[in-house]
Amino acid sequence: MTELHFTKGQGTGNDFVLFADPDATVDLTPERIRAIADRHFGVGADGVIRAVRSDAIPEGRAIVDQDPSATWFMDYHNADGTVAEMCGNGIRVFARYLTESGLVDLQPGETLSVGSRKGIVDVQRQANGFAADLGRWGLGIEGGGASDVLVRAKALDRARPGLGIDVGNPHVVVAVASDDELAGIDLTCVPVLDPAPAAGANVEFVLPGDPLVQDGVGQITMRVHERGSGETLSCGTGAVAAALATRHWAGASAPDTWRVRVPGGVVTVRMFAAEDGEHVSLAGPAELVFSGDLTV
Predict the structure, then answer these.
(1) What angle, rounded to 10 degrees, do the helices at 236-250 and 88-100 form?
(2) Which of 63, 84, 86, 87 is catalytic?
């Protein structure tokens, strides 16, 4: 048995259990992760995040070789015990956890480089939250290729075309026509994708705003089924994928800044040019809720 001092955090309702294990001494098995994330018998969370020094685990050593300043690695696990490449809400909450725990000193306006299975992610502290530069994105999933996927979901009247988006982890985005249609989808069941990605994908159902653009900012509403976690109140990378897909559908005149409403609140997505191509960032709140001790 292992004693863990943990902190519960959330970003627009997407909730996580975080704990520090700088030297990677905790045997973080899938069974332990599922026990921690269980909402009836554990703490309860959409994911479990371990704060580990990058040079303490194999995935992180390559990160330090690339950027020695990325001393902390976000070791992210879905509620079912599987690992994920990135979590847009999770990395903002992770940055809040590192600063509030005294593990890093990050003042408003400063940027922290964080290691992840996606690579290095730069997180900036803002006055009312954090913004994460999630880097380059691409159409398609599983290394590119065909971006069109047919999606079937319970209580959706027929299969719908979905657009594959890669933001470091895989997404398929589906447009719906009304509030009632969006609300009526039963996401207690896993949406069926055709063709099915070997590693699965997060699936976003998106309703464009009316008007779509207000004061130069795009407006969409989204629900999501997260791979390995089920429906969640928010998905940061899902919001990014939803905004990218909607801009793609809207055409060249569409804006580069989007306000994405999810059941847990609102996040902001921004696309911008960088030396290695277009990047996309995610900004929004990140809060720590409570701390405690747990035996796993």
Answers:
(1) 140
(2) 87
State the pTM of this model: 0.94
Check if 235 is active-site.
yes
Q: Work out the burial of residue 41: count CB atoms within 10 Å of its CB; fewer than 13 is exposed, 13-18 middle, 19 or more buried.
A: exposed
- Choose the catalytic residue: 52, 203, 233, 235: 235
Using DSSP's 3-state secondary structure scheme, residue 223 falls into strand
Q: Give 19's strand partners.
A: 6, 50
- How do residues 218-239 score in pLDDT, each as one tens digit? 999 999 999 999 999 999 999 9
Categorize the per-residue pLDDT at 164 as very low, low, confident or very high, splitting at 50, 70 and 90. Answer: very high
Identify the band that residue 141 occupies on the pLDDT scale cut at 50, 70 and 90: confident
Q: Distance between CA atoms of 74 and 61, rounded to whole angstroms? A: 13
Contact call for residues 84 and 53 (beta carbons, < 8 A): no
Residue 146 predicted with pLDDT over 70: no
CA 242/CA 224 separation, integer angstroms? 10
Answer whether 6's CB lies under 8 Å from 292's CB.
yes
Q: Are strands 14-20 and 47-53 parallel, antiparallel or unpaired?
A: parallel
